[in-house]
Amino acid sequence: MFEFEFMRHAFLGCTLVSVLAGTVGWFLSLRRQAFAAHALSHIGFSGAAGAVWLGVSPLFGMIAFSLLAGLAIGSEGEGRGKIPPQRDSTIGLVLAASLGLGTWFLHEANGASSMATTLLFGDVLGIDTPTLFILAGVTALCLLGLVFLGRPLLFSSLTPEVARARGVPVRLTSLGFMAVAALACSACAEVSGALLAFSLMIGPAATALRLGLCPAMGLLVSVLLALVLSWGGLMLSWITDIPIPFWIGLGAGIFYGLANLWTRLRTN
């Protein structure tokens, strides 16, 4: 399969996205913000559809919409260490409105059903060299952001009240992290589409957290599982001609189920 350039591009793209998804997804799961990741990827669909309407790259539109949504979610912050009770309702309403907006964008662009399918389910086999450079830039930017945010982010995620008392800028940290998460969701959508980016972002991370690993090992396992899902999905898709997002979603569920079983057997 590596004789074909599009497969080499696909594997490189999956590698970049998986490293990013495993890292960012671990923090999202730790902070119990899985629904935010789900919403950001769907909101990105509207941006991609808008970009199609304007005649520019869908990836740029997805990044723009996801980033704006991430900043809006992060701006709510954790008031005195508590997640605002209306946050999920607000995210849900924005999500519903954005999906409607995306449908309208595609209608105005006279987009065919094939374009909608590509935006929703991804087209990893269509990744070209410019897209690879964009994904590499997004990955580098997000990982660099996590280097600066890592310690205060972990501190404020585990004990927000103590972090606030120690002078950690909890609200600013949350804002910065949601911007990183938005960019990561946009990158993941290139591999598994807007609908299933959630599975690559949260599946490996939830499995690592379920195993009860320390932060360093949890991040490593989350990244490795994301790589296994994306690489395995590509190879199984090559063999079976079944779309890659199917294998990623199925594999994420299997990994979490096995981790749950292992945890139960170990504690009994």
Automatic annotation (TrEMBL):
Keyword annotations of the record: Membrane, Transmembrane, Transmembrane helix, Transport
UniProt GO cellular component terms: ATP-binding cassette (ABC) transporter complex
Membrane-spanning intervals of the chain: 6-28, 59-77, 89-107, 132-154, 175-202, 208-232, 244-262
Main location: membrane
InterPro entries: ABC_BtuC-like, ABC_TroCD
Subcellular location: Cell membrane; Membrane
Record's bilayer topology term: Multi-pass membrane protein
Single GO BP term: transmembrane transport
Superkingdom assignment: Bacteria
Keyword Nucleotidyltransferase appears in the UniProt entry: no
Protein name in UniProt: ABC transporter permease
